[in-house]
Amino acid sequence: MIQAQNLTKIYGRFIAANDVSFNISRGEVVCFLGPNGAGKSTTIKMLTGFLTPTSGQAQIAGFDMTTQRLEGAKRLGYLPENVSLYPDMTPESLLNFFAEIRLDRKDRRRRIDEVVALCELQSVFRRPISRLSKGYRQRVGMAQALLHDPDVVILDEPTSGLDPNQIQHVRDSIKRIGRTKTVLLSTHILQEARAMASRIIFISDGRLVFDDDVANFGKDIDDFDQRFKSLTKDKKDRYLPKRAT
To answer: pTM of the entire structure?
Structure first.
């Protein structure tokens, strides 16, 4: 359902992502792990079609996200790290607005009810988004991303900046999403991988350095911490050679 094939992105001389390849099958919940600046967001932007690769190919549900982005987007729900919402709207008006754009009339009410229940928005459904906590805004963003019932869901740092209670609510929502969707969850927080995923893809200095089951990454948080350190201790040169003048 998600395929990265030799994805590379270069800005000037800087290699943000270097030959990244992996496949994620239907029904998997996978954590895309790595330190800040490793290239996670760059890779995700290529997978979602928001960024054109320098080389390589990204596919969602079999569609090339460079040449067939509109078809791929129909199968994709994407929550960026900094979700943009209309602050003067309520979750109700926002979801109705996007439902009118993306859904057939006969499906709108049913899908709104389903995502509101899935993301637990009932108590804030008619409250202005500007008055919601960041945790609730994240859940509104998830509901919007899920509204068209996509097969694939990609979440970029969905718990960043949240307090422990908000993190738990978002985790619960992601677990419910993962029962029926293919999910790729990007984070630099080790606990997220242990709490929600069955597989870890680890990127460091723009390169994929680990791709295996969570159990093979470590049996507890101390193991996770040691593995994280070992995978990131050897810094790689991320710059192309200067051209001769």
So the answer is: 0.91
